[in-house]
């Protein structure tokens, strides 16, 4: 595995472009990855829920991971989801297979580690078994909301980070609560675990608390503006607040008919991709497409205001 430093900043949740026949469009995927990198992101979270994770075959997930590593070419680190399959053996093998693709960490969806009814003690035990079975593979955790939303309590997270002895390096946090994020950061102090907030509304506040950055759906609409906020929130708090207020204002556009809307938005940005989705997602009406174009123009204007 590669073990590049995980820097503070933006880690977009990488979409999967498809052709109109439903097959992965790899030229568009490469263009999309280059678009993220050109907009100043510090890492790539590929093969995640926004990638339409559960609609991909195991072979497709690995192919996307290898392609992301190849395109990144050491410019930014790449993390991808593992621990997927229909049995414990399949889930463990998926961790090894992802690591062999050259990613910088294999991210474990918390909802895949134990069943929904399992308590924190069972989660701790399962994570311990995974650590023991995966040698020196660097890991991450993702509070993925599908198939069920499992949040990792601050005290438990601190225990896991200390158990991992530096091998737990990445957390995509989806609690959407700045007070809980503060508790998680305190619990994990000194462990090397970096917390990337998936919630846009609490982004600036979480950065001020010590979060490493942002990793969420909004990075598929304005990764450059998010990268600017992550870079300027200490030195230019007025600009950071201006950006955060803008993000809060337009968040409903981000959420609307995602991920199809994101694919159409990125096409407006010059990424040559279709809006085909394997996940169920309604098409945008003519009126909604006009609104999307207006949204795009305002994002461009906001970028020119820096």
TrEMBL record:
<comment type="similarity">
    <text>Belongs to the DapA family.</text>
</comment>
<dbReference type="Pfam" id="PF00701">
    <property type="entry name" value="DHDPS"/>
</dbReference>
<feature type="active site" description="Schiff-base intermediate with substrate">
    <location>
        <position position="172"/>
    </location>
</feature>
<protein>
    <submittedName>
        <fullName>4-hydroxy-tetrahydrodipicolinate synthase</fullName>
    </submittedName>
</protein>
<dbReference type="InterPro" id="IPR013785">
    <property type="entry name" value="Aldolase_TIM"/>
</dbReference>
<dbReference type="GO" id="GO:0008840">
    <property type="term" value="F:4-hydroxy-tetrahydrodipicolinate synthase activity"/>
</dbReference>
<dbReference type="InterPro" id="IPR002220">
    <property type="entry name" value="DapA-like"/>
</dbReference>
<keyword id="KW-0456">Lyase</keyword>
<feature type="active site" description="Proton donor/acceptor">
    <location>
        <position position="142"/>
    </location>
</feature>
């Amino acid at each position: 595995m590669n073990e590049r430093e995980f820097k503070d900043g933006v880690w977009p949740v990488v979409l999967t472009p498809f052709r109109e026949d439903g097959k992965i469009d790899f030229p568009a995927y490469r263009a999309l990855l280059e678009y993220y990198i050109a907009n100043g992101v510090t890492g790539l979270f590929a093969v995640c829920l926004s990638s339409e994770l559960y609609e991909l075959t195991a072979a497709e997930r690995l192919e996307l991971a290898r392609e992301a590593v190849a395109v990144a070419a050491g410019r930014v680190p790449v993390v991808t989801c593992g621990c997927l399959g229909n049995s414990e053996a399949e889930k463990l093998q998926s961790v090894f297979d992802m690591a062999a693709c050259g990613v910088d960490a294999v991210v474990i969806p918390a909802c895949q580690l134990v069943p929904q009814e399992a308590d924190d003690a069972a989660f701790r035990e399962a994570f311990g078994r995974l650590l023991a079975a995966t040698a020196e593979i660097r890991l991450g955790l993702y509070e993925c909301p599908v198939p069920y939303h499992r949040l990792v309590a601050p005290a438990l997270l601190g225990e896991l980070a200390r158990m991992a002895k530096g091998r737990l390096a990445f957390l995509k946090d989806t609690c959407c609560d700045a007070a809980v994020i503060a508790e998680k950061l305190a619990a994990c102090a000194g462990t090397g675990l970096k917390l990337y907030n998936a919630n846009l509304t609490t982004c600036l506040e979480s950065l001020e608390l010590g979060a490493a950055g942002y990793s969420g759906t909004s990075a598929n609409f304005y990764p450059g503006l998010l990268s600017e906020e992550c870079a300027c929130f200490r030195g230019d708090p007025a600009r950071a607040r201006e950006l955060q207020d803008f993000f809060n204002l337009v968040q409903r556009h981000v959420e609307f008919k995602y991920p199809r809307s994101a694919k159409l938005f990125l096409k407006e940005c010059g990424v040559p991709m279709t809006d085909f989705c394997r996940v169920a997602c309604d098409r945008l009406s003519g009126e909604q497409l006009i609104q999307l174009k207006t949204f795009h123009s305002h994002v461009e204007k906001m970028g020119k205001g820096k």
